[in-house]
C-alpha cells in the first residue's frame, strides 16, 4: 500500500470518529438538560430535550424517557407513541411489563378524555339549541288579547207618568207641566253630576304640580258619570213627554205617554212612547 493511500484511510477514520464524538456530545448535552428540566417538573420542556437527544443519537433508550416526560406533562397521545416506539425498538426490554401497563393506562385515559369531550360537545349543542329556541320564542309577538263584546243594552219598560185612558184636558195639561218641570230638574241635576265627573277626570288626568292621587276621587268620578248621563236622558225624555201631554191636553184629545229608562255600562237615557 502506498503511503499516500494509507494516510487518506487514517484521515477518514479520524474524521468519522470525530463526527461520532460530536453526535454523542450533542446527545449527552440534550439528555442532561432534559434530565434537569425533568427534575424541575418542567416535563414538556424535558420531553423536547429528550427528543433532541434522540435526533442527535437515535438510542432507543431515549424513547422511554420521552414517554415518561410527555405522560407527566399531560400529553397522553405523545407519551403513548413514545412507549410503543420503545417496545418496538427494544423487543426484550427489561421493563417491558411496566411499559405495557403504562400503555394500558394511557389508552384508558385517552378514551375517557374522548368520551368527556363528546359529552361536553353534546351538552353545548343542546344549550345552543335551547337558547336559539328561546330567542325565537321571544321574537314572536304574543297573540292579541281577546276583547269580550259589550253586553247588549237592557231596556226595562217602566212607565213614569202614564196618562189616564180618558184624562180631562185641564188635568192632562197640569200633568204635562209637572212632568216637564221634573224633567228640567232632572236635566239640571244631570248636568251637575256630569260637571262633577268632568272635574274629577281633569284632576286625575291633568294633575297640578303638587297633586296627590286620591282613590276616592276616581271612585266618585266613576259613580257621577253614569248618574249624570242617566239623569240627562231621563230629564230630556220627561221634558218631551210633559210638553206632549200639555199639547194633547190643550187639544182635548186622548193620549197615552210612557217613559222607560235605559241604563247600562255603555249608555244612559230613556225611551219615550206616546199616542195621541
Please characterize this protein's 3D structure.
The protein has 2 domains: 3-129, Tetratricopeptide repeat domain (Serine Threonine Protein Phosphatase 5, Tetratricopeptide repeat, Alpha Horseshoe), CATH 1.25.40; 169-275. It has helices at 3-39, 43-56, 61-72, 76-89, 96-139, 169-205, 215-250, and strands spanning 256-263, 268-275. The protein is rod-shaped, with a radius of gyration of 56 Å. By secondary structure, it is mostly helical. A two-stranded antiparallel sheet has the order 1-2. β1 (256-263) and β2 form a beta hairpin. The model is unreliable at 1-19 (pLDDT under 50). α6 (169-205) runs antiparallel to α7.
Helix/strand structural class: mainly alpha
- The CATH topology of the largest domain comes to Serine Threonine Protein Phosphatase 5, Tetratricopeptide repeat
**Ends distance:** 165 Å
For the record, the count of structural domains works out to 2
Q: What fraction of residues sit in β-strands? A: 5-15%
Radius of gyration: 56 Å
Helix content: over 70%
User: CATH class of the largest domain, anyone?
Assistant: Mainly Alpha
Which oligomerization state do the chains in this entry correspond to? single chain
Amino acid at each position: 500500500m502506498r503511503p499516500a493511500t494509507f494516510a487518506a484511510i487514517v484521515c477518514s477514520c479520524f474524521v468519522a470518529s470525530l463526527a461520532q464524538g460530536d453526535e454523542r456530545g450533542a446527545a449527552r448535552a440534550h439528555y442532561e438538560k432534559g434530565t434537569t428540566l425533568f427534575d424541575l417538573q418542567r416535563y414538556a420542556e424535558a420531553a423536547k430535550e429528550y427528543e433532541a437527544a434522540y435526533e442527535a443519537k437515535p438510542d432507543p433508550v431515549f424513547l422511554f424517557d420521552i414517554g415518561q416526560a410527555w405522560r407527566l406533562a399531560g400529553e397522553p397521545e405523545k407519551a403513548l407513541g413514545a412507549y410503543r416506539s420503545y417496545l418496538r425498538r427494544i423487543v426484550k426490554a427489561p421493563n417491558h411489563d411496566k411499559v405495557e401497563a403504562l400503555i394500558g393506562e394511557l389508552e384508558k385515559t385517552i378514551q375517557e378524555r374522548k368520551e368527556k369531550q363528546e359529552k361536553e360537545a353534546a351538552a353545548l349543542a343542546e344549550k345552543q339549541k335551547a337558547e336559539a329556541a328561546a330567542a325565537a320564542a321571544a321574537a314572536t309577538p304574543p297573540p292579541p288579547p281577546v276583547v269580550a263584546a259589550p253586553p247588549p243594552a237592557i231596556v226595562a219598560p217602566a212607565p213614569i207618568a202614564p196618562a189616564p185612558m180618558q184624562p180631562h184636558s185641564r188635568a192632562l195639561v197640569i200633568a204635562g207641566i209637572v212632568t216637564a218641570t221634573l224633567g228640567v230638574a232632572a236635566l239640571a241635576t244631570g248636568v251637575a253630576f256630569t260637571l262633577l265627573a268632568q272635574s274629577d277626570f281633569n284632576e286625575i288626568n291633568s294633575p297640578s304640580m303638587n297633586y296627590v292621587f286620591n282613590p276616592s276621587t276616581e271612585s266618585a268620578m266613576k259613580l257621577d258619570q253614569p248618574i249624570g248621563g242617566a239623569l240627562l236622558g231621563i230629564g230630556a225624555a220627561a221634558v218631551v213627554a210633559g210638553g206632549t201631554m200639555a199639547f194633547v191636553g190643550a187639544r182635548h184629545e186622548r193620549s197615552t205617554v210612557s217613559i222607560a229608562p235605559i241604563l247600562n255600562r255603555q249608555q244612559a237615557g230613556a225611551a219615550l212612547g206616546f199616542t195621541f
